[in-house]
Design brief:
Elements lengths: L4 E8 L2 H7 L1 H21 L3 E6 L2 E6 L2 H17 L10 E8 L2 E3 L2 E3 L1 H12 L5 E4 H7 L7 E9 L8 E8 L30 H13 L2 E5 L6 H11 L8 E5 L9 H8 L10 H8 L5 E6 L5 H14 L3 E7 L8 E5 L14 H4 L3 H13 L10 H10 L4 H8 L7 H16 L8 H14 L3 H10 L8 H8 L9 H10 L4 E5 L2 E5 L2 H12 L4 H22 L5 H10 L1 H12 L5 H10 L1 H7 L2 H12 L7 H17 L3 H18 L2 H17 L3 H18 L2 H17 L3 H18 L2 H17 L3 H17 L3 H17 L3 H18 L2 H17 L3 H18 L5 H18 L1 H10 L1
Parallel strand pairs: 4-7, 10-13, 10-14, 11-12, 12-13
Antiparallel strand pairs: 1-3, 1-4, 2-3, 5-6, 7-9, 8-9, 15-16
Helix pairs in contact: 1-2, 2-3, 8-9, 9-10, 12-14, 13-15, 14-16, 15-16, 17-19, 17-20, 18-21, 21-22, 21-23, 21-24, 23-24, 24-26, 24-27, 26-27, 27-28, 27-29, 28-29, 29-30, 29-31, 30-31, 31-32, 31-33, 32-33, 33-34, 33-35, 34-35, 35-36, 35-37, 36-37, 37-38, 38-39, 38-40, 39-40
């Protein structure tokens, strides 16, 4: 059928619970529900073509007829008096598109999309797609309108859907947020191909997850473990309000990085004083969550420790893992992923019969991507059955075979596959273990490649976690492959389903399935060129990091943070190679210092310090400037880890080397960092001395950007010492420079600090205005740390102005960001602000708890308050003790 059809899908919200608790009433209600729904559909020219339980599927000749029917049904449902304890509420969805009609039913992507659209909605809500909206918007009757709900990712649909809601004057119009991947917490990647079959397997996984907290899907490479786990999560991700999180372990080789990888997947900023696993436990304690650990087989011990720790620390957490073997921890439920059902090659050759098998449906679905219009017919049904049977229903193998449909017909594919199996097994197909079958499939696909494509595939295995085309050109060109040929060769591999491609920041990013990467890596290591490719990969990684160091200082920071995060597997591989080979310390330190800013923003100070120490301890001769830069970077990491003495020692070493080399800029940067360490440890006079020397050098060099930064730091010292006039003058001078340079992030920081001065001088309106300006800039430049700082200070001034409700909201929003980033010093400031609010609201126990939490954080990191601020808090503590009495105060403090 080629003409568009409008489909209406409906189902009752919460019907399972109603049936279980009120079966008799529900039976009566369902009869009336069915009468109303069917009558309205038919009254508007619709056809009910399927019912499943309480769900209706109907087709209409035009979108307006479907929309009017949906509104009438909802109005009648609301007016009805139901025998059940609560009214029957039905969610509805409308979508228009082409579909295949077969035996009084409809099939095709249009039906898949409306089913996913329906799953977003709530009882009483009518959702429509953009196609329906376009068909009805010009002729809506009075009392009806359309509300734009934005674009939303749908389960198992690659392209987002623009979703609208029909508004009717007699119906409610306010509903909770849609249950889409765009709204609920998750990091699940969009799937670029459809999910085929596996209904029984998905149901079995849900049964096992309901009764087990750790479920491990086991099976050989290529059997579809990952895709099945993702689909199981997608089908029920709204059951996990704390999020569904995918952790890809394939790029890792070091079990020590598992916790950090999980934290990164959950978008947590690490705190050097708290283990990554403890951070993850804290994040997942708020309610039901699902963690997907993908590809555990090479990290079994680390995954076992992780699973035990998380399950013990998070009572509402469930873990679904994929592995080639069990993880072997108490309480683990394993379930082997079966192959797709395949037809008997000696059985029926009826296309309808053969086409019902899941393996055949997958073959057809993927073949269409390479040869549009492909279908199983009477001529090829036997060959397709033979292909799927001899590939043992293994999804990856079937996809590789289907990729050849653009150049071979099914009969040719079957005959070539037969030849390859005989070659590899000596004709004993019955004895094939599944891994050998997969390897045979990859061998076959590999042997069909042109020689240059084989070379490129082997070289691409050097990448961990994927690559962009520019990286492939730099690393993989040479010998038989010209740099300009890499893109064409890469396209060949994508077409043959040997390389996967996805969209990342509006650019394609490529990757290899783990099994194919392992296969290609073996081929690469058997050649003389493995060393040269490894060297080029390390060189590319160094270039990437050094370019990233420049880009992370400007407006490209968000995009480059995402890019470096994506390349973490590659740079770790390069760091591992460079730090483990004699004579490579220089490149290792170039790579590590290039990543320092990235590690700083991500809070990965421990990892950064570890790589820097390896390079500095190597004993290799490196240029003095590079050593000084590495010491400076190591000092910054040590400071953030609370190792102030170690930090100061490394920064002094860096400064001394720069002085000896005559590098005044390096000296100024080291002095500024030493000032920060001194200020954080309460040594304000020493901090002032360091800053003043750094300022003098920057002015001598004409380095206006660094000059503004140091002026700002001097203002912070002056403000901490209570000299508001000097602080204001310094901040205003720094602000002037920042505006002249167009440095928006520095401008926002200067405005914030000026606001602090006005706040101290009781100019509350002026302070509020500056904090709001700073907050606007922080959001403009995507500075989460700046946003948290501005919200904290805005909350303080609003509290002083008497708006305690808004003040508390600002402070809690600030605390959430600072917790997310692991900013313990910032959290201490925010707890102190919340204590002031609680005290003014006559909530002394909460106030004491906040103060205790802040004091504990400050003691742990060794960062005291400025004297004036400490005196103010001492007065508050004394007042609370007097009000509560010492025993009650001590108990509240202990709880805090």
């Amino acid at each position: 059928m080629t003409d568009p059809i409008t489909f209406l899908f409906t189902d009752i919200e919460g019907s399972t619970e109603l049936w279980e608790l009120h079966e008799a009433e529900m039976s009566q209600a369902l009869v009336r529900h069915d009468e109303l729904v069917r009558a309205s559909i038919e009254r508007h020219g619709g056809q009910v073509f399927k019912t499943v339980g309480d769900a209706f599927c109907a087709a209409f000749p035009d979108p307006m007829a479907g929309a009017l029917a949906a509104c009438q049904i909802q109005c009648q449902l609301i007016a009805e008096e139901w025998p059940t304890p609560r009214p029957i509420r039905v969610r509805m969805a409308l979508h228009s598109g082409v579909a295949e009609a077969r035996e009084n039913d409809f099939f095709g992507p249009t039906l898949n999309r409306i089913a996913r659209l329906l799953s977003l909605g709530h009882g009483g809500q009518i959702l429509i797609s953009s196609q329906v909206e376009q068909g009805i918007s010009a002729s809506l009757p009075e009392g009806m309108s359309v509300l734009d709900l934005g674009r939303h990712r749908l389960k198992d649909v690659s392209e987002p859907e623009h979703v609208f809601q029909i508004i009717h004057m007699e119906l409610p119009f306010e509903f909770p947020p849609l249950r889409s991947l765009s709204v609920l917490l998750n990091n699940l990647p969009p799937q670029l191909t459809s999910f085929v079959g596996r209904a029984a397997e998905l149901e079995r996984i849900q049964e096992l997850l309901r009764s087990n907290r750790l479920l491990t899907l086991i099976g050989s490479g290529g059997c579809g473990k990952t895709r099945l786990a993702l689909q199981a999560a997608l089908d029920h991700f709204d059951r996990y309000p704390q999020g569904v999180w995918l952790v890809e372990l394939a790029p890792l080789s070091d079990e020590g990085l598992i916790g950090q990888t999980v934290a990164s997947a959950l978008r947590l900023r690490l705190d050097p004083s708290v283990s990554p696993i403890a951070k993850v436990i804290e994040s997942l304690q708020g309610g039901p969550a699902l963690l997907l650990l993908d590809n555990c087989e090479h990290l079994l011990s680390g995954c076992a420790h992780l699973a035990v720790a998380l399950l013990q620390g998070c009572p509402d957490l469930k873990i679904m893992a994929t592995s080639r073997e069990p993880i072997h921890v108490p309480g683990e439920q394993t379930w082997r992923v079966p192959s797709l059902a395949s037809p008997d090659p000696d059985g029926s050759d009826d296309p309808a019969v053969v086409g019902e098998f899941e393996s055949v449906r997958l073959f057809v679905d993927r073949a269409i991507l390479h040869k549009p219009g492909f279908a199983v017919d009477s001529q090829n049904a036997k060959a397709v059955a033979q292909i799927c049977h001899r590939l043992n229903g293994i999804p990856l193998a079937i996809e590789l075979a289907a990729a050849r449909s653009n150049v071979l017909n099914p009969e040719q594919i079957a005959s070539r596959l037969d030849d390859q199996f005989r070659l590899l097994t000596g004709g004993n197909r019955a004895a094939l273990p599944r891994q050998q079958t997969l390897r045979a499939t990859i061998d076959w696909s590999y042997d069909l490649l042109e020689s240059e494509d084989r070379v490129l595939l082997d070289r691409l295995s050097i990448f961990r976690g994927g690559w962009v085309v520019e990286a492939a050109e730099q690393v993989c060109a040479g010998g038989p492959i010209d740099e300009f040929d890499v893109l064409d060769r890469l396209s060949h591999l994508v077409d043959k389903s040997l390389v996967a491609v996805e969209d990342f920041d509006n650019s394609p990013r490529y990757s290899l399935l783990d099994s194919i990467r392992s296969y290609a890596r073996e081929k690469l290591e058997a050649t003389d060129g493995v060393g040269e490719v490894t060297e080029r990969h390390a060189g590319w990684s160094v270039d990437l990091a050094e370019e990233g160091r420049k880009r992370l200082e400007g407006p490209d920071q968000p995009a480059w943070m995402r890019r470096l995060e994506r390349e973490s597997g590659n740079v770790r591989a390069a760091l591992d190679y460079l730090t483990s080979h004699e004579g490579r310390a220089e490149d290792a330190l170039r790579l590590a210092t290039g990543l320092t800013r990235f590690w700083y923003v991500r809070g990965q100070f421990e990892e950064g310090a570890g790589w820097l120490e390896k390079g500095l301890r190597s004993g290799d001769s490196v240029p003095s400037e590079l050593r000084a830069t590495a010491l400076y970077a190591a000092g910054i990491c040590a400071n953030e880890m609370g190792k102030y003495q170690d930090s100061m020692e490394k920064l002094r070493q860096s400064m001394d080397i720069h002085r000896a080399d005559g590098n005044l800029l390096g000296v100024a940067n080291a002095l500024n960092a030493m000032g920060i360490v001194s200020h954080q440890t309460g040594q304000y006079v020493q901090a002032k001395s360091f800053y003043e020397e750094a300022l003098e050098i920057n002015r001598e060099l004409g380095n206006r950007s660094s000059e503004a930064r140091v002026l700002n730091n001097l203002g912070i010292v002056a403000n901490s010492l209570g000299d508001r006039a000097l602080a204001r003058s310094l901040y205003e001078e720094a602000l002037k420079v920042s505006r002249e340079l167009g440095n928006r992030s520095e401008e926002g920081l200067n405005l914030n600090n000026l606001g602090n001065v006005l706040f101290a001088q009781e100019d509350l309106d002026g302070a509020e205005d500056l904090f709001r300006q700073a907050l606007e800039i922080s959001r403009e430049v995507s500075s989460r740390a700046g946003e948290a700082l501005n919200l904290n200070n805005l909350g303080q001034v609003l509290h002083r102005k008497g708006d305690t409700e808004e003040a508390q909201k600002c402070l809690l929003d600030s605390l959430a960001i600072r917790r997310e980033q692991g900013d313990r010093l910032g959290m201490a400031f925010t707890f102190e602000g919340l204590a002031r609010v609680a005290a003014s609201e006559e909530e002394p126990e909460d106030a004491v708890g906040y103060l205790a939490a802040a004091a504990s954080l400050r003691a742990e990191i060794g960062s005291p308050l400025a004297p004036a601020d400490q005196r103010e808090l001492d007065d508050l503590i004394a007042a609370l003790k007097s009000e509560m009495g010492q025993p009650a105060f001590d108990a509240a403090w202990e709880r805090g």
